[in-house]
Amino acid sequence: MTQRPSQGEAPLAIELRGISKAFGPVQANKDISIQVKRGTIHGIIGENGAGKSTLMSILYGFYKADAGEIYIGGRPTPIPDSQAAIDAGIGMVFQHFKLVQPFTVLENVILGAEDGKLLKPSLAKARKLLTDLAREYELDVDPDAVVEDLNVGLQQRVEILKALYREADILILDEPTGVLTPAEADHLFRILKGLRDQGKTIILITHKLREIMEITDTVSVMRRGEMTATVKTAETSPEQLAELMVGRKVLLRVDKTPAQPKETVLEVRGLRVIDDQGVERLRGIDLDIRAGEVLGIAGVSGNGQSELLEVLGGYRKAEGTIRMNGQEIALTGSASDARMRRMQGIAHVPEDRQREGLIMEFRAWENVGFGYHREERFGSGLFMDNTALRTDCEGKMARFDVRPPDPNLAAKSFSGGNQQKIVLAREIERDPDLLLIGQPTRGVDIGAIEFIHKQVVALRDKGKAILLVSVELDEIMALSDRIAVMFDGRIMGERLPSETDANELGLLMAGMTGKPVAAE
Amino acid sequence: MTDALPKWADILLIPLINLILALVVSGLVVALIGKDPFEALSILVTGAVGSAYGWGYTLFYATNFIFTGLGVAVAFHARLFNIGGEGQAALGGLGCALVLLYLPLPHWSLAIIAASLGAALFGAAWAAIPAYLQAKRGSHIVITTIMFNFIASALMVYLLSRVLIVPGAGGSPETARFVESVHLPNAYDVLPWMGFSRSTPLNVSFLLAIAACVFVWVLIWRTRLGYEIRAFGQSEPAALYGGISSVRIIMIAMLISGALIGLMAINSVMGEAERLVIDPVQGAGFVGIAVALMGRSHPVGVFLAALLFGALYQGGGELTFEMNGMTREIILVIQALVILFTGALDNMVRAPVERAFLSARKRPRAPLPTNPVEPGGHSDEKKVEP
């Protein structure tokens, strides 16, 4: 790698002084100062909405700070746009990759950084560099593979390669492990450590305490737009970090008693789904869920969990049989199926609350009836009873501690956790026999996670059946009474949480069935 | 930011600023061709609203635009871009004319009901085919509706020159006049003391247009169907999850849209021309798009925007008469500028106005030592989409 001319051997890679940024009335960043030493992995942790992404967007030139200064390598460096950030040696790996799907790896790497009008010299140069990087940092990717054929772990490597090709000395990664299997995450961490040992500086944004503890050297905690603390990772604990993030003591475990499963509520046999492209998404799923238990479905996202939820929720066509309380239910995927499901006692908190669970432009009160808007309680005949909806919404907001408790606010104005509480209130209070719940705490702050988990356990204790789909292994382990692991449209196996561990589940999630080979 | 603006600013202030900008630029255009923009503006305003005569035409045009604007607005709520207003209104005219020509209707009050049914039915039917193609086959409604405008136009030419033409009556492509008994009372008949002339085109269908506004408001904001239309329009994935049938919503929204647009014929065909002529729509279908955009798809907004465009039509017409060198084309430029500023360039004005409102709201808080962040309220992280 070409070494950037060092500026007086300043030990600091980045220093931010007094950065402030407001969006309208919301102060996203408040007088933030932070120092990141060269050659370290620096974690930034905070709840959703704490201002982490805003801060990084300022550093990468997407937003202009209202106040404050950025020093790169000891020199004041204004960053008006992302080109300036790249010139300053900053590379960013976004949560949602910015890759051109039908292009090859090589083409993606040089995109926007071509040396001349002709592609060939750039491609040749990139190819050589890629081979070198692969050797050095375990960053192997086939340069000629088309990006859309690569799995997410490899696509992420392409993003890192892109940054390194642009001679980044400082690499920012925004929630990099959200889409990875545990094994892929481990691999990523090895790559990052390798980069650090070569003198690169890495900033890791995450909300996962475990990752912070595992890989960072220093960690900064953000809360409500402020930097509340910067500590050495070796001198802190997950409990302390959680407290710094939330501002109060948080229970990291879920308190629950052993399940008392009763009769079978849902019976799934030979469920198959073939999508519009003719790809088989579910390849014969068999499942039973009983009253009073939580069945957790673990797996890396994209292995059929979403399709399973959609079939059960009544809006995806499938083959096979499903019995709900002994009655066979229709699998045509038409709109009437989705309505029938609700009458048959199936409630559904969808994985993507902003796309499916809520109408973001609708006010909170309009959302609390969504899906149930044809029921008698919300109107008569052709007409909606908006007053009934408003009253219902006020009650739900009080019982589920939605903040701010204003039914007239649009759904998009609430934070992730409060949005989820609105969906949860709507679905749980319908008093279903079976609750489908997908990614219940994705994009939800720690304080709300605790609340949501409690609600799920309480519903189980009321004797309801719960199907939980989550990519967060910790969440699956904490909430489930039984765990089924999905891979490539199949159930790879079922385990009891007490008799398994993250290692075994990780192997199942990667599609390996046999007994795990003893590592040591 | 959500809810950055109070409702009145959203519905009135911003369109007003847009309008003023459009007029300023129009003034520059007028000055550029060597005319006095202030004189032009004065003629335009006087011509539109300076006399009962002017008001008669302004409100007559506005009535057309209310119907087409409402139709486009209903489709907008389902996120369907119905630009087939020209064709649907023409077919509405056909439905209206057929009813009035071939049904023995003793009195205008019965006739307006029957003709409304005919016009709405034909307008809806013309919208039904693109709607079905969109709902079932995914053919984009913008493409199909605009193609149906051309088909409608050809169909009307054929029918009026070959089928419905009155033999030996001078050979102009139009139907026979409707009988005297179905003549709609105009503003002169209803409000004789207001100074409208005997031949004013403003007629009772203006009241029908107001009723249509009320109907659309109730439909969109008070019925389960309206709720489903809006939900579908805001988020198709959510509609799927919520058990709302996309086929049903697309069909129903487009049928209602086509029916409302078809009703325009009650004003233009039954109320004014009293026969079906070759182009009964005169661009009102397209103006309806601008009206719906400017009126934010809200019936009150549509009503006000229709008034504005009615005034522009009428005032613009006067301008071509009164001022030498103000050709029809210049009037079109002015109307286009209004559409450009109120529809397409809306965000140009919106962003600074929102900022002004926010800073005005924030200022009183500034002296506080800490800057309060709303508890658990707005998510302050923005998604970065460069």
Characterization of this structure:
The complex is a heterodimer of chains A (520) and B (386). With 520 residues, chain A is an alpha/beta fold. Among the domains of chain A are: 12-89 and 169-246, Rossmann fold, CATH 3.40.50; 264-354 and 433-509, P-loop containing nucleotide triphosphate hydrolases (Rossmann fold), CATH 3.40.50. Chain A is built from 17 helices and 22 strands. Chain A has helices spanning 52-59, 82-87, 105-110, 119-137, 152-165, 182-197, 209-215, 238-246, 305-313, 335-343, 353-357, 364-367, 386-399, 416-428, 446-461, 473-479, 502-509, and strands at residues 12-23, 26-37, 41-46, 67-72, 75-76, 90-93, 170-174, 201-206, 218-223, 226-232, 264-274, 280-290, 294-298, 319-324, 327-328, 346-349, 379-380, 383-384, 434-438, 465-469, 482-487, 490-495. In chain A, the strands form five sheets. A six-stranded mixed β-sheet of chain A has the order 6-7-8-3-9-10, with helices on both faces. In chain A, strands 16-19-20-13-21-22 form a six-stranded mixed β-sheet, sandwiched between helices. In chain A, strand 19, helix 15 (446-461) and strand 20 form a beta-alpha-beta unit. The longest helix of chain A has 19 residues, at 119-137. In chain A, 48% of the residues are buried. Chain B is globular, with a radius of gyration of 23 Å. Chain B has a domain at 68-298. The two termini of chain B are 18 Å apart. In chain B, helix 5 runs antiparallel to helix 11. Chain B is mainly alpha-helical and 386 residues long. Chain B is built from 16 helices and no strands. Helices cover 70% and strands 0% of the residues of chain B. Classes of the chains: A alpha/beta (520), B mainly alpha (386). Chains A and B meet through strand 2, helix 1, helix 10, helix 11 and strand 18 of A and helix 9, helix 10 and helix 16 of B.
